[in-house]
Amino acid sequence: MKHLLWKPALIAAFLGLTTPALAADCYADYKAKQDNPLRLHYGVVQLSGACQKAAARAEIRNRIAPQGWTLLNVISVFGPEGLQQRKPDAGSYYLRF
């Protein structure tokens, strides 16, 4: 009987380890561009999806596209400890999107 209770716990633990963490306090910094005329910006966004670079690419791309921006690169994904050091470089694109 004990093995019947043990298996669901093992499966839940396995799924918890393989599922990406959600972005409670997750941020990403990125570079983007606009054409005609060429404009570049560096920005920082708070992520609402998975706290991973691949997921951040899609999320950032979808957020900045309506304003005519094209994502060039997601530089890094980080926690709240990295916000203040990036704020001066991001300027008006700090948590804008």
Features:
three-stranded antiparallel β-sheet, alpha+beta, globular, 97 residues, 3 helices, 26% strand, single chain, 38% helix
Assign the structural class, choosing from mainly alpha, mainly beta, alpha/beta, alpha+beta, or little secondary structure.
alpha+beta
The proportion of strand residues reads 25-35%
Unreliable stretches: 9-20
Strand order of the largest sheet: 2-1-3
- Main β sheet profile: 3 strands, antiparallel
Average pLDDT, rounded to a whole number, is 85
Radius of gyration: 18 Å
Q: Could you give the distance between the termini?
A: 52 Å
**Percent of residues in helical segments?**
25-40%
Description:
- The protein is α+β, with helices and mostly antiparallel strands and about 100 residues long.
- It has one domain.
- About 40% of the residues lie in helices and about 25% in strands.
- It is built from three helices and three strands, in the order αββαβα.
- It has helices spanning about 1-20, 55-65, 85-90, and strands at about 25-35, 40-45, 70-80.
- A three-stranded antiparallel β-sheet has the order 2-1-3, with helices on both faces.
- A hairpin with a 4-residue loop joins β1 and β2 (about 40-45).
- The longest helix has 17 residues, at about 1-20.
- It is globular and about 35 Å long.
- The termini are far apart.
- The model is unreliable at about 10-20 (pLDDT under 50).
